[in-house]
Every structure is written in C-alpha cells, then in structure tokens.
Amino acid sequence: QVQFVESGGDLAQPGGSLRLSCAVLGFGLDHSAVGWFRQAPGKEREGVSAISFFDGATYYADSVKGRFTISGDSAKNTVYLQMNSLKAEDTAIYYCTTVELPQWNIAGLYDIWGQGTQVTVSS
Q: Which of 23, 27, 68, 75 is the most buried (most CB within 10 A)?
C-alpha cells in the first residue's frame, strides 16, 4: 500500500524559509501527480500546491503563489515544497498525497495521508 512520509517542518520566523519533503513509498510517481495540503487548527484541510509528473505542470493556491515552489524527483520518489517569505497564516500541519487533476485541491477526494509535518511561523 502506498505510504507518504512528510518531513522538514519546523519553527520559522515571519519572512523565513523552510523546505518540506514528501517521500512516497510503494508507488511509482512517473505517471502521477502529488499535492501538498495543510490544515490549521479549527480549519479544513486545504490544497497548497501540486505537481504533475506527466508533464511537469505545477499548481498553486492563490495564497502561496510567488512564495512557494513545488518540485519533484521521480528517481527518489520524493516531492519538495520550498516555502519562502513565510507568514503567520502559513502555520499548519502539512500533508502530501497523490492527487487527481485538474481537481487536485479537493482534500475530500483522498483518503490516504501521511502523519504530516508541523510548520509554525512565529517571531
């Protein structure tokens, strides 16, 4: 069964940067798409970004465009999320999963998630 292992979360200052990693086990990514989601306390899980290994297309939520960059390494079966210019509102647990296109950001479509990695942005 496919498993997702997220890592890289930490405490960061506003304006700082973090790089998250999503290792995908038991499933090849060559013909897939992977998305990052986040869930803040008391809020629903929301789509942050996704990448298609079909054609390299990338997708971003409006709230992170220009600040976050998603990338993938099919040889390592890993997807990364480079987060720059962090804001307090980026504080959340970040998760990854394989996604369907084009409706990549609908969290309710997916039922296999990793344990997540905590990102806290605070001074």
A: 68
Phi, psi values for residue 60, rounded to 5° = -140, 145
- d(C-alpha 60, C-alpha 1), whole Å: 27
Q: Where are the alpha helices (DSSP H) in 48-120?
A: none
b/e 61-100 (16+ beta carbons within 10 angstroms → b) = beebeeebbbebeeeebbbbbebeebeeebbbbbbbbbbe
Would you mind telling me the total number of residues written for the chain in this entry?
Answer: 123
What is the residue-level pLDDT of the chain in tens, covering all 123 positions?
899 999 999 999 999 999 999 999 988 888 899 999 999 999 999 999 999 999 999 999 999 999 999 999 999 999 999 999 999 999 999 999 999 999 999 999 999 999 999 999 999
Give the separation between CA 28 and CA 31, rounded to whole angstroms.
8
